[in-house]
Amino acid sequence: MRNSIWDPTAKTAAESAAESWRARPAAQQPEWPDADELRSVTAGLEKSPPLVFAAECDLLRRRMAAVARGEAVLLQGGDCAETFAGTTTDGIHGKLKTLLQMAAVLTHAAALPVVKIGRMAGQYAKPRSQNQEHRDGVTLPSYRGDAVNGLEFTAASRRPDPQRLRKMYEASTTTLNLVRALTTGGFADLSQVHAWNRGFVADSHVGEQYEELADEIDRSLAFMKACGVDTRELGTAEFFVGHEGLLLDYEAALTRTEAESGRTYATSAHLLWIGERTRDLDGAHVEYFSRIDNPIAVKLGPTTSPDTVLGLLDRLDPDRDPGRLTFVVRAGAERIRDLLPTLVEKVNAEGAQVCWVSDPMHGNTITAASGHKTRRFDAILDEVRGFVEVHDALGSHPGGIHVELTGDDVTECVGGGNAVLAEELHHRYETACDPRLNHTQSLDLAFRLARMYRERGPVNARPRSLR
Ligand SMILES: O=C[C@H](O)[C@H](O)COP(=O)(O)O
Ligand SMILES: C=C(OP(=O)(O)O)C(=O)O
Q1: 107 within domain boundaries
Q2: Which atom of ligand 2 lies at the shortest distance from residue 359's CA?
């Protein structure tokens, strides 16, 4: 950055200010065995080009402002943990196609623009409940994502390796490059709505529903063309990327200040979020996030208090700027209806317009009899339904969803379209961390959420107090 040609010779004052997090306790950071090696890797990253640019982050911030105002819907999705080995054309293609299909379903039903963010091109680090993992009498450090160590259960693989931060940057670059090519090079053209389903199971109920919708979109496009509307704008998709800003050494190394505006950005992604385990008001993550100008999000788990939410609002969105802050609620199906109303009311009473988004995955994780970590599709759906119900009752906007998904036909979550049975979990259980929705389950969720939006009716048909 710095006027687009960025000068790596010295940190600007704003970049130095963005280092203030170092004086605070940083939760969930790896114990890097070699501090000199870490410094040498981050020094290399400081000299590397940014992955995203300020104008793109500002554009996403404007799109998120539309979500906050109830004029758009957010769809964010991708792997729980991206892996270096999973950085393949097919893998990236599959996730992108799934997200584009879900977005088409939601746009059609909600009659609102869908802001699309991949949980992609940077989601390589994981916070963990336990620092160590025990297997057959052997204890090793937990897997913390490919950015830190390897999944294989050996001492060598589990040793944190700072060189992995460089690999994270490279894998993110590769992914983002393909995503940019696919979303702007014709593949995301709405006239390809049928082609996005190619290679996926089309003979299920969900597949049939999708084909019907795609026919309808085709007919609408033909109608628009016949009326003389220029549909070329539908030839590309606006697509952003985001990940949990967990590894602060990595994020700090990619933080840049734009010379012209003096604004400081995390340039590893358009949007970063703070996880449930690192949102301590006095901690390093909140401090770092308070210094960057990207649109940001914070996860809110089942024990979140209204005071914490107000504290986060003051620290991260002091100007009450719509689009700046998103709260991603992941309370669990059993808690969402009790927890959310007070939080929304408190924020509203502050006059703040944040985006409210549902992550129906992380509060609904259970262990199956087979020992697999899994999630029931019904619980996921119930949390989304509870989230929408609460917003309906309060007259606020259910801004969208943030989900862990893949385009692959994995068997990690139970139920949903083409129901996966608990006994089938071992068939294709491929996640490096938490269970993801497969392609059919993802589309199924999109159709069901679409129905909820449709039942609410178009925005301008709702009484003004309910918009
Ligand atoms: O994705 C979120 C967390 O990293 C994950 O749920 C942690 O899993 P754990 O509880 O097995 O450590
Ligand atoms: C760790 C995650 O979620 P949470 O912080 O909500 O547990 C995640 O989304 O990867």
Answers
A1: yes
A2: 6
Tell me, rounded to whole angstroms, the distance of Cα 270 from its chain centroid. Answer: 11
Complex confidence, ipTM? 0.98
**DSSP state for residue 186 in the 8-state scheme:** S
Supply angle C-alpha 408, 272, 330, rounded to 5.
65
CA 434 to ligand 1 center in whole angstroms:
6
What tokens appear for 195 in the block? Answer: 């082609």
Domain count, the chain: 1
Residue 386 falls inside a structural domain: yes
Query: What's the pLDDT tens digit per position in 288-347?
Result: 999 999 999 999 999 999 999 999 999 999 999 999 999 999 999 999 999 999 999 999
The pair of structure tokens assigned to 196 is: 């996005």
The enclosing domain of 55 has a CATH number of 3.20.20.70
| Contact assessment for residue 2 and residue 256, using Cβ atoms and an 8 Å cutoff | yes
Domain membership flag for residue 205 = no
- Torsion sign over Cα 356, 257, 29, 315: negative
Q: Is 127 in the pocket of ligand 1 (CB under 6 A)?
A: yes
- Other beta carbons within 10 angstroms of residue 45's beta carbon come to 18
Q: What is the mean pLDDT of residues 192-211?
A: 84
Query: pTM for this structure?
Result: 0.95
Q: Ligand nearest 143 Cα, by number? A: 1
Ligand nearest to the CA of 246: 2
Alpha-carbon torsion (378, 383, 387, 393), positive or negative = positive
Q: Nearest residue CA, atom 7 of ligand 2?
A: 276
Atom from ligand 1 closest to the CA of residue 142: 12
The pLDDT tens digits for 168-189 are 999 999 999 999 999 999 889 9
Beta carbons within 10 angstroms of residue 202's beta carbon: 13
Domain residue limits at 350? 26-188+236-459
User: Is 20 part of any domain?
Assistant: no
Helix and strand element counts for the chain (H, E): 13, 14
Ligand 2 centroid to Cα of residue 403, in Å, is 10
332: left (phi over 0), alpha (psi -120 to 50) or beta: left
- Work out the number of other CB atoms within 10 angstroms of the CB of residue 412: 26
